[in-house]
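Bench notes, afternoon.
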Amino acid sequence: MVKQGEEHEVRVSGVILAGGRGRRMGGADKGWIELDGKPLVRRVLDRFAPQVDEVLISANRNLERYAALGARVIQDALPHFAGPLAGLHAASTAARFDLVATVPCDSPLLPLDLVARLAEALAKSNADVAVVRASGRIHPVFLLCRKHVLGRLHNDIAAGGKRLQEWVQRTSHVVVDFEDERAFCNVNEPADLAKLMRPH
């Protein structure tokens, strides 16, 4: 639940994106890779769940294991592991609330004020999407969007659109700057996991 003004509160559906192939990690389901003995998805859930009103996990493997975390699991309706856009597409019908926030399953340091800051920027703009920028770099998997824009995703993906960042660029959006680049580190390959294990 995000407060906007003294009396108005907006409810948010949160989606943890865990539906990828993990190709650069040898095909591993990245959510279940452990960091200091704890799965990445558990670390993400612990930081993300308090910021939203419901949590959905977008997954295509290990569905029962993800469901055991206590979140509702949604699968891609589109074939061939179509990536984060497919997870958003699944959320277009599964999410209960009019705002949808997404984070990846492999970014265990995500900010505790992520959703609040994105929601504030979205409320102040006429945009449909608020997206993170840190150290000058856009991180499109960390976003908050108005649910109604997700209804167009099926046609976008069918037309060949597969990159989340390109969809964000085509959609009315506002960029929100965060100072800590490390908060948005994710585990794409073994070296990334090693970096996260180092003291900062």
